[in-house]
Amino acid sequence: MTRMDNDMTRMDMDMNKDVKGMDDALKNALRRQEAPDGFAARVLARVAQQDSPQKPVHRDSWLTFLTQPIVRWAALAAFATAMILGVHVYNVRRERAEGEAAKQRLMLALRVAGSKLQLARAKVNEMNANQTRNRQVKE
Amino acid sequence: MTRTITRRKTMLWLALLLASSALAHAQDFKIPPDVEKLSAKAKETVEVTMDGPMLRWASKFLSADDPEEQKAAKLVANLKGIYVRSFEFDKEGAYSAAEVEALRSQFRSPGWSRVVGVRSERDGDNVDVFFKLENDKMAGIVVISAEPKELTFVNIVGPLEVDQLADLGGEFGIPKLNTKASSKPVVKADKGEHK
C-alpha cells in the first residue's frame, strides 16, 4: 500500500465522522416535539377573533354625560317644570285676554244703556218743554 | 225598586224646578225669537249677555286708575246681570210694532213699573223705561228703545241704589233719573199706556 492510499483512507474516515455529526445535529433539531397545553385552543380563538367583523369603536362625546341617571332625571325634571310653567303662562295670558274682552263687553253694555237712558231723558225734557210752552201760550 | 225610581224622578223634577226658577229670577224675561232673528237683517248688532259670575269676573279687570272704570266697578258690584240687544238697520221698517210690543208686554206685570214711556210721532222715537221694585228698592231696570232704524233692549238686573244711578250720570251718558217718581210714570206716553 502506498502512502497516497493511506492518505485517502484517512480522508474518508474524517469525512464519515463529519457527516455523522451533521446527521445527528439534524435529527436533534427536527425531532418531534409535543405542543404546550391549550395551544390549539388559543390558535383557534385567535383565528375566530380575526374572522369576526370589527366592532364599532365607541368614541367619547358630550352626549355621554346623559347616560348618567342623575343627569337624565335632572333633564326630565327641567323639561316637566318648563312644560308646567309654559302651560301656566299660557293660561294666565288667555284668562287676561278673555277678561279684557269681557270688560269691553261690560263697558259697551253700560254705554248702550246710558245712551238710551239719555235719549229717554232728552225726550222727556223735550215733551215737558213743549207742554210748558203750550200752557204759557194758552195763558 | 219602583219606589227608588219614583224618588229619583221627584228629586230630578225638584232640581229642574229650582234651576229654572233661579234662571227665571236671574234673567226675568225672554227675548222673543222674532227679535233675536233681527240680527240677520241688522247692519250692526250689539249682543251682551252677562250674568252675575261673569259680571264679577269682568269687573276684576276694570282698572282702579281709570275713573270711568272705577265707577263701573262700583255699579256692577251688586248687579245680577246685564242683557243688551241692539240692532241698527239700513232701512226703516226692519222690525214690526208687534215685535216691540211682545218685548214690552213682558214688563206689564206686577213688580214692574213703567216710569218713562215716550211715543214721538215727529221723529218716530219710542222709548220705554221700566223699573223693577222689590221692598221699595230698585231691583232692576229695562229700557226698550224703538227708533226708525234702531231697536235696543237693555235689561239690568240687580239692586241699583240712587247713588249708583247718580254716579252713572255723565260717565256713560246715563241721565240722573228722578228716582222719587219711580213708582209713578214720569211722563205720560203720547200714545202708550201705563199699567
Sheet with most strands: strand arrangement of chain B: 1-2-6-5-4-3
The end-to-end distance of chain A, rounded to whole angstroms, is 204 Å
Number of helices, where a helix is a run of at least 4 consecutive DSSP H or I residues of chain B: 6
How confident overall, as mean pLDDT of chain A? 84
Mean pLDDT of chain B: 75
Shape of chain A: rod-shaped
Low-pLDDT residue spans of chain B: 20-26, 169-195
Helix content of chain A: over 70%
Helix content of chain B: 25-40%
Q: Tell me the strand percentage band of chain A.
A: under 5%
How many beta strands in the DSSP annotation of chain B?
6
| Largest sheet properties of chain A | none
**Rg estimate of chain B, integer Å:** 19 Å
Largest interface: A-B, 26 and 41 residues
Give short descriptive properties of this protein.
heterodimer, A: 139 residues, mainly alpha, 79% helix, B: 195 residues, alpha+beta, 6-stranded antiparallel sheet, globular, disordered C terminus
Notes on the structure:
The complex is a heterodimer of chains A (139) and B (195). By secondary structure, chain A is mainly alpha-helical. Chain A contains three helices and no strands. Chain B is an alpha+beta fold. Chain B contains six helices and six strands; from the N terminus they run ααβααβαββββα. Chain B has helices at 2-27, 33-36, 52-59, 67-76, 97-105, 162-168, and strands spanning 44-51, 81-88, 112-119, 126-134, 137-147, 150-157. A six-stranded antiparallel β-sheet of chain B has the order 1-2-6-5-4-3. In chain B, β3 (112-119) and β4 form a beta hairpin. Chain B is globular. The termini of chain B are far apart. Chains A and B meet through α3 of A and β1, α3, α4, β2 and β5 of B.
